[in-house]
Design brief:
With 455 residues, this protein is of the alpha/beta class. The protein is built from 17 helices and 17 strands. Bound molecules: iron/sulfur cluster.
């Protein structure tokens, strides 16, 4: 991994210790830049020479490429490590759906609506597909342009324009060039024309080379020499194992060996996967897409918009691209679950997101409207927080005051997780509330809450 030491960064700083970067000294700033906690350009006094050297040295080995413009723009690449535990993965795999310009205008609009309506809320994030890939199957420039027009009228999602024919591509680009679509794709036969289009319309360019990686590197060098800066690589797809091996090799060459010609994000087409068994065909595209996502694909293009195919991918992506050093958490506070009133039971839990959502759904399943007091445990689960002294009687007592629980309920009874039974006495002492020890497992809340609501 390409990395500067704090001293190498320090040597390029002005060394005046002015503090304008938010750190008391240039040396402290250099340490924070080196560990990725500060952006080196927060120092307003860098010389041009220092700026050039630092941008070169600190640039991620896999180039960051943006597709689209504005709030819907998608960033891919920008990765710095081979394995997630070395740091984190920065930009999630973008999921695209392929639609064909052979479809009627009505059918195109229907498909786009289906793509836009595919959404899932999980752990306080909206998970959804990112891109539309328009395939120029008609090979007809006018028909392709018409389809581009329909997409632009219907959605603001970024677009991948897919055609190996530069004439077809240019008609599409004339309509949406300023929206920075991804041009897919340059090959050894059309590289010059496609590279010219990428430069003219200032768009990222995908390079398709299913042969040896050395041939791909040659095409990358040619495109770069012509002035194309933002590239995306496609190693093709004949066989799952071969493609996976190439994706892994690309990552190692780019990051491990710092070979710049391989340092670009990748695009894959699991939609090209075929199986001899019709019964398995539906599952195969998802299986292939999952494998590519795990092994570094920056974009995966799918054929089917069926929700059961996309949902597992969205959840997998959320898991892979979360920072492993940060526990998923929700905001501490008092949450009303269901149609609560001043007599509703009040339970307490930790702010680890999975704990919160599990407890919330178990309360909902009980159909007993309840308050859930969420204590700040730094994103740890109840068991871990309790063991680590972060889920204590003192913390719960403070949370009762801070979130004004007494103003919401008339009773003075708190239900604590069964795993934390030991703190019940201390909590009663600190709050003068009656403490009931709830179940050890929240799946038992359904029966537990129904029982106490009828007594
Ligand atoms: Fe040093 Fe620049 Fe920070 Fe000032 S702003 S302390 S010169 S790094």
């Amino acid at each position: 991994m390409r990395k500067l030491t704090p001293m190498q960064i320090y040597m390029l700083l002005p060394k005046t210790n002015c503090g304008e970067c938010g750190f008391p000294t240039c040396l402290a700033f250099a340490f924070n830049v080196a560990s990725g906690k500060a952006n080196v350009f927060a120092c307003p006094y860098l010389s041009d020479e220092a700026k050039r050297k630092l941008s070169e040295a600190l640039a991620p080995p896999i180039k960051l490429v943006t597709i689209g413009v504005g709030s819907e723009a998608i960033k891919i690449g920008g990765e710095r490590v081979i394995h997630r535990h070395e740091d984190k993965f920065y930009n999630p795999t973008a999921i695209a759906f392929a639609i064909s310009d052979l479809l009627s205008e009505e059918e195109l609009r229907k498909q786009i609506a289906a793509i836009e309506n595919t959404k899932l809320e999980r752990l306080e994030e909206i998970l959804k597909p990112d891109l539309i890939a328009l395939k120029g199957s008609s090979e007809n420039p006018e028909r392709f342009a018409k389809a581009v027009e329909t997409i632009l009228e219907t959605t603001s999602l970024p677009i991948i324009l897919c055609s190996f024919n530069p004439k077809v591509m240019e008609e599409g680009l004339k309509l949406c060039g300023s929206k920075r679509p991804l041009i897919y794709a340059a090959t050894k036969d059309n590289l010059e024309s496609m590279a010219k289009l990428a430069i003219e319309y200032d768009c990222p360019l995908a390079i398709y080379e299913p042969g040896r990686l050395e041939s791909l590197a040659e095409l990358v060098k040619k495109a770069r020499n012509m002035g194309v800066k933002d590239l995306v690589l496609d190693v093709g797809f004949n066989d799952l194992r071969e493609t996976l091996e190439k994706l892994v090799l690309l990552r190692h060459l780019a990051i491990g060996e710092e070979k710049r010609e391989y340092g670009y994000p990748t695009i894959t087409f699991p939609s090209l996967a075929t199986t001899e068994s019709d019964a398995l065909a539906d599952f195969w595209e998802v299986t292939v897409a999952t494998s590519f996502m795990i092994r570094y694909a920056s974009i995966i293009v799918l054929n089917s918009i069926k929700p059961w195919r996309i949902l597992p991918l969205l959840i997998l992506r959320q898991g892979i691209f979360r920072d492993p050093r940060i526990h998923p958490r929700v905001k501490p506070g008092l949450y009303a679950i269901g149609n609560v009133n001043e007599h509703s039971p009040c339970l307490v839990t930790s702010n680890y997101a999975l704990t919160y959502f599990t407890v919330k759904s178990d309360i909902e399943a009980s159909k007993v409207p309840s308050y859930l007091l969420v204590v700040d445990t730094g994103g740890l689960s109840v068991a871990s927080a309790f063991a680590g002294g972060k889920f204590t009687a003192e913390k719960i007592a403070e949370a009762i005051e801070e979130y004004k629980v007494k103003e919401k309920v008339k009773h003075r009874t708190m239900i604590i997780p069964g795993l934390t039974a030991k703190i019940s006495g201390k909590l009663e002492e600190l709050t003068n509330w009656k403490v009931i020890v709830g179940p050890r497992d929240s799946s038992e809340l359904r029966v537990f809450l129904r029982k106490i609501s009828t007594t």
